[in-house]
Every structure is written in structure tokens, then in C-alpha cells.
Amino acid sequence: MALKVGRRFIVEPGGALHGEFPVPGDKSISHRSVMLGSIAEGETRVEGFLEGDDAMATLSAMRALGVEIEGPEDGRLRIQGVGLHGLQAADAPLDLGNSGTSMRLFSGLLAGQPFVSELVGDASLMRRPMRRVTDPLTRMGARIGTAPNGTAPLRIEPAPGLRGIDYAMPMASAQVKSALLLSGLYAEGETCVTEPAVTRDHTERMLAALGVPVAVEGPRVRVTGGASLTGGGIAVPGDISSAAFFLVGASIASQASVTLTNVGLNPTRTGVIEILRRMGASIDIDAGHAGTGEPVGRITVEPAPLRGIDIPPELVPLAIDEFPAIFVAAACARGETVLRGAEELRVKESDRIAVMAEGLARLGIEVHPQPDGIRIVGGRLRGGHVRAHGDHRIAMSFAMAALAADGPVTIDDCAEVDTSFPGFVELAHRAGLSIRAEETSA
Ligand code: S3P
Fold first, then answer.
1. 352 marked among binding-site residues
2. Distance between CA 107 and CA 94 in Å, rounded?
3. Are 335 and 305 in contact (CB under 8 A)?
4. Ligand 1, pocket residues at CB < 6 Å
5. Alpha-carbon Rg for the chain in angstroms
6. d(CA 181, CA 164)
7. 100 appears as a binding residue in the annotation
8. Where is the Enolpyruvate transferase domain (predicted)?
9. Which one of 93, 96, 252, 269 has the largest count of C-beta atoms within 10 Å of its C-beta?
10. Is-contact 212 223, C-beta < 8 A?
11. Residues of the chain with pLDDT under 50
């Protein structure tokens, strides 16, 4: 049996962050570019596509469903769309790796197909809750089986016909909203989704850009079945979730000046900027041109003394993926930072409350985890040995923590960084972080 290779980061303390550079393409928008381009009529050309494992899992799955896709080459794809009804059965289960977005959005898309699909993933993905999508899809008439505890493998059987529903989501989830909008394209009548708090709206924006009428009235989004998509050009901006590590790193470093270019600034994603600014961060934004319905801009960040805050609950879904990095900022702030209403963090690629609490405690920070959040008492970060538990965002957050630590930070279990940020170590190193990666037997 081949030995599984793991990765460890070793980051020397201190260092500076400098430079002007782009971050890799947005993961959420990359997934959607492949999914929507594939079911559109005609060719879709994508640029800025994220060549990370998660978006590549979506791309491979679409190829397995019969879609011809050229690339990626330097972030460019050419997708020969097959139209709403042109997908074909895959001849093996679709392996979606570590990617929750792929699994949840594909559930919606495949629920309306006239063939059987099976969806599987890695150990982390096979533990994540799927009833949040399979329950409402079942109400639309879909036939989806899960494991007894509501996790993958998912088996999707052809349904005699999907019906639109009017669904109030119990949790703020763009993945659930998107899954229902995608199945809504295949349903009779109107599918209406109401969200309890604003979540990322990339699906709505991209559907509209490809010619599907999407009605958005406050928290309600509606699509009508049968509307066809027209292929076109999609420019994927840089991922603000990847930029977040540099925003925090440059804020806590003793010396830094970083400008991140072409970063997506969709207002449903900018919670991290708002939270860091409330903590006292020095972040300047030069909002630029909008690429295919998504605003972008340059972000410049410099070190600043941070203070702890109570994070406003309405910002939680707008920064949901950035909390590991925000917790590192909180560890370096004067006073306490309190987060509540964020129980979703417990069901991400890892339990991000437990895993960050464990790691920050090892680095000498006083933490008080709660079921739905955490209280972090800012202090002095020590060096130490932490574990990323296979969660990309935890690994990159702790790498940045070394900028403010008084000893080296060693982070185990970092191989999944490639899911969202291929080239992170090289880019961070070029910017001034004293980071190296080492192979381990995992
Ligand atoms: C995503 C939505 C969020 C986010 C995930 C990507 C998306 O998940 O955490 O990384 O692309 O729709 P939830 O919708 O489960 O909050």
C-alpha cells in the first residue's frame, strides 16, 4: 500500500510581509463557473479559475458527467456547455475530495437528472452534514439517499419530476441556497429560498450573468424552472478568503506593507475587512472595475495595534470562512474578542472552534470555546507545535500567527492547503514569511 504523504509547516518567528501581488482565484466562484458553464448552451470561457484541489474536483466530476472542458491553463478554461439536459451518467461514483461546496451544489444539480449519481469524498467530507440539502431537495421530489447519520455517500436516483418549493432555510448557508436554485432550474414552477441572514450570492449573480432571470427581494431569491443559460465569459476574481491570511498577517507583523490586487469584494464576502477594521486594522481599499457581475479591488494593509471586540452577529455569515484567521488577530489584540452565533464553524472542514482553541492554547493564548463561538483573551503568542487537522484555513492561519510569536510555530497536517491556495508557501515566503514545508508520513 502506498504510504500517504502529509505536510508540515515550520514557520520561524517574526519576519515581515511586503509586496504587491494577486491571490489565487475565488474558490466559490470557480466551482460555479464550471457548474453553470457546463449546463449552459454554447461555450463558456473562464479566466482566473482556481487550480486548487476543490475546484478541480468539480471540474473532474463535470468531465465524468460528459462535459468537454479544456484547461486549466494559467487559470483559463474553455467549457463546451451541454445545456440543461445534456449531462450524462458518470460510470463511477463522483469523488469530490475535501469539497463541501462540490457535494452540496452537485446534489441540487444532479437531483433533476434522468440518471443515477453517487457522490463520495475524503474522510472529512464524509463526516459533514448533508441533510441540510437532501431534506429540502426531497421536498421538491428528489430521491436522495444518505448514510444513516445523514452524511455521504449520497445516492441520487432519477425523480419522476421536481416541483418548486418555497423554503425558509433554517441556517444561513449559501451552499444550501445554491443547491436549491440549481435544482429549481429543473423543477416545475417557481423555487423560492429565504435565507435567515445574508450569505454569498455568487450563484444568483452568475445565473443572472448567463441570462437566467433571478428575482431577489431582500432575503428571498426565486428562479423558475426551465430557464436556459447562455454560455459566455466569466472572470473569476482573487479569493478574499485567501487574501484574509495576508490581511491578518500584515496587521499583526511588526513590519509590513502588502497590497493585494484583483481581490473579489462582493459585499456578501467582506465581513473580514469590516471585523478587522473594527479591531483597529489599517486596511485601505481601492475599489476597481467589476468583472462579470463581481466587484473587485486592491487592498492595502499595514500593521496596526488591534483591540478585542464583540463581533456583531450579522457579520458572521459574511466572514464565515475567515474566522480561523480572525482568531489569530484576536489572539494578538489588546482585550477580549467574543464571537457568538457561529455554530456553523463546528461543521466546516474541521470543527474550527475546537481546533483553533486547541492550537491557540498551545501557543499560550487564553481561550474559552463555547458551543456557538469563542472568547479569546488577547496576549503574547509563544512558539509551539499545533495541528491543522487537515483543514487548509487552520494551517494558513497558524502560519501567519508566527509573525507575532516569540518562537517557531510548527503546524502538522497541512497537505489540504492545496484545496484552496496552491502555492501558499511559496507566495508567503516571497512576501517575507520565514516558512518552509516538510513532507511527513501521515
Ligand atoms: C460556500 C459557502 C459557505 C462557505 C464555503 C463555500 C459556497 O458554506 O463556508 O467555504 O461556495 O457556497 P455554507 O454555505 O455551508 O455556509
1. yes
2. 11
3. no
4. 28, 101, 173-175, 178, 200, 320-321, 344
5. 21
6. 10
7. yes
8. 11-426
9. 269
10. yes
11. 1
Distance 15 CA to ligand 1 centre (A): 32
Q: What is the DSSP string of 103-127?
A: HHHHHHHHHTSSS-EEEE--TTGGG
Confirm if 122 and 148 have CB atoms less than 8 A apart.
no
Ligand 1 atom nearest residue 321's Cα? 9
- Nearest to residue 407, comparing CAs of 13, 8, 33? 13
Question: In the block, which residue shows the cell 437531483?
Answer: 111
β partners of residue 78: 45, 70
- CA-to-CA separations, 230 to 143, 172, 209, 212, in angstroms, rounded: 28, 29, 9, 8
User: Could you report the per-residue pLDDT of 278-307, keeping only the tens digit for each?
Assistant: 999 999 999 876 667 899 999 999 999 999
Instruction: Report CA(101)–ligand 1 centroid distance (Å).
Output: 6
Mutate to test the pocket of ligand 1, among 32, 101, 272, 349 (most ligand atoms within 8 A of CB): 101
Model confidence over 9-66: pLDDT tens digits?
A: 999 999 899 999 999 999 999 999 999 999 999 999 999 999 999 999 999 999 999 9
Domains contained in the chain, CATH given: 5-25+237-441 (3.65.10.10), 27-235 (3.65.10.10)
- 181: closest CA among 227, 235, 118? 227
pTM, rounded to two decimals: 0.98
Residue ranges of alpha helices (H) inside 348-423 are 352-362, 392-401
**Dihedral in degrees, nearest 10, Cα atoms 75, 428, 297, 56:** 30
Taking the centre of ligand 1 as the mean of its atom positions, its distance from the CA of residue 432, in whole angstroms, is 30
What is the number of the ligand 1 atom nearest to the C-alpha of 320?
9
CA 367 → CA 289, 328, 337, 350, distances in Å?
A: 41, 11, 10, 18
Please give the span between the terminal C-alpha atoms of the chain, in angstroms, as a whole number. Answer: 13
